[in-house]
Design goal:
This protein has 403 residues and is an alpha+beta fold. The chain contains seven helices and 14 strands. α4 packs parallel to α6 and α5 runs antiparallel to α6.
């Protein structure tokens, strides 16, 4: 399948490709930090077909509006592709990269690679990707001097689709040090964002590509997202702790799929496993408060399950107890808090149901273990407010039976 390249992609050649493609003499440019200015133009007939993936609950009018919005967005995308887009990327080139002719390019899925290298020129071809007979990508770079080079790239597939890129690279210096990390344990912002989000589009799917430039795993973040037909940027929370998912490791990136037709995305805050954070005090506090709402709901759920376990109730009776607890739960103020509370009850009930299928006799204690493990992640990040107070104060002792 053709992968839509909307920016220049950078990677290190895998070992089996280096063995095939290592070439000498190397490209004669300096090692260190480089900035690449990339102009991309696209011709993609296969991407013009509008998917009819309209939500099934839409009526005829809503369906027509949805398809009209998709068609308008597609037309706009085609206009942008025709006139091209400008991107600037910074990338570190090492001595090993030059020895392997790995100046720039995404070759990690290439079935084989052809490399030519000289002091004045590097050419890299990826004639075929696994499972594709027509996808072929190629890059060519020419030296201007030791601190400058130019290049072209062609990424094509489906016999008709292609993206052409013109590249101008300039050496910035020998240091490839990452941007400064956030100050540990505070909710105050830093001038250099330790995490960034960029909008990516693949046909009619939109993604926030989130890159963690910090020194600790990124556990949750907040973005501003703009949708087609709405000029306002709306806050969007994505918290790996809330979802019980692994954090984004330092130096790694994560593609979060976004609903609807998205026109812009911007990172405004986040928190890390070591307690560091960035963004405004309010953004960080709001992100952590969502964890407090979930933890408070878990406390009530654990209390109910502990009581069910003490009484020797079966799994079905324990589920009924959770349903009653949800119905009598205090009404929270904001719609987001209400959604988190309701969702937490649903998640706990689903865990109990899954454990019942596995072994009904141990379903309640197994569910308690799962919830405690989830709660442990929610309590793990020691993020503090500017006064040095923890934003999440729950403790493991509050999730035990008989406390």
């Amino acid at each position: 399948m053709f992968r839509l390249f909307t920016t220049l992609f950078i990677s290190v050649l895998p070992a089996h490709l280096v063995a095939q493609g290592a070439a000498k003499p190397p490209f004669d440019v300096k090692i260190g930090l480089w900035e690449f200015a990339v102009h991309s133009t696209a011709v993609m007939p296969s991407a013009t077909t509008i998917k009819s993936d309209v939500p099934p609950n839409y009526n005829a009018q809503q369906r027509a509006q949805y398809l009209a919005a998709v068609a308008a967005a597609q037309k706009k995308a085609e206009e942008v592709a025709a006139r091209g887009t400008q991107t600037k990327i910074r990338h570190c080139i090492t001595g090993a990269d030059l020895q392997n002719a790995n100046v720039i390019g995404d070759l990690t899925s290439c079935a084989r690679v052809e490399v030519y290298s000289s002091p004045q020129k590097v050419m890299v071809k990826c004639p075929r990707y696994p499972g594709s007979q027509d996808q072929q990508n190629s890059w060519e770079f020419k030296r201007v001097d030791s601190e400058n080079f130019t290049g072209t790239a062609r990424l094509e597939s489906n016999l008709t689709d292609r993206i052409d890129q013109m590249i101008v690279a300039h050496w910035l210096g020998e240091s490839c040090a990452p941007p400064p990390a956030a100050r540990p344990g505070t909710a105050t912002g830093t001038p250099a964002m330790p995490a960034v989000a960029q909008l990516r589009r693949q046909v009619n799917q939109y993604f926030a590509s989130v890159a963690n430039h910090g020194s600790s795993p990124l556990t949750g973040y907040v973005t501003l997202v703009a949708h087609y037909g709405n000029n306002q940027l709306n806050r969007h929370f994505y918290d790996l702790r809330m979802l019980d998912l692994p954090p984004i490791k330092a130096g790694a990136a994560y593609p979060e799929e976004l609903p609807g037709i998205v026109t812009d995305v911007k990172m405004i805050g986040g928190v890390f496993a070591d307690g560091s954070s960035y963004g405004s005090e309010k953004v960080v506090a709001d992100l952590m408060e969502r964890r407090n709402v979930k933890l408070n709901t878990f406390k009530v759920i654990v209390s109910n399950l502990c009581e069910a376990q003490r009484k020797g109730l079966d799994a079905q009776s324990a589920m009924s107890s959770l349903d009653k607890a949800k119905a009598s739960a205090p009404k929270l103020i904001t719609s987001m808090d209400i959604s988190i509370q309701d969702g937490t009850y649903v998640e706990a009930t689903n865990i109990l149901r899954q454990q019942t299928v596995r072994n009904s006799a141990t379903a309640v204690p197994a569910t308690l273990d799962k919830i405690r493990e989830w709660a442990s992640g929610l309590m793990a990040d020691p993020v503090k407010d500017p006064g040095g107070n923890l934003l999440v104060t729950a403790t493991p002792a509050q999730f035990t039976c008989g406390r």
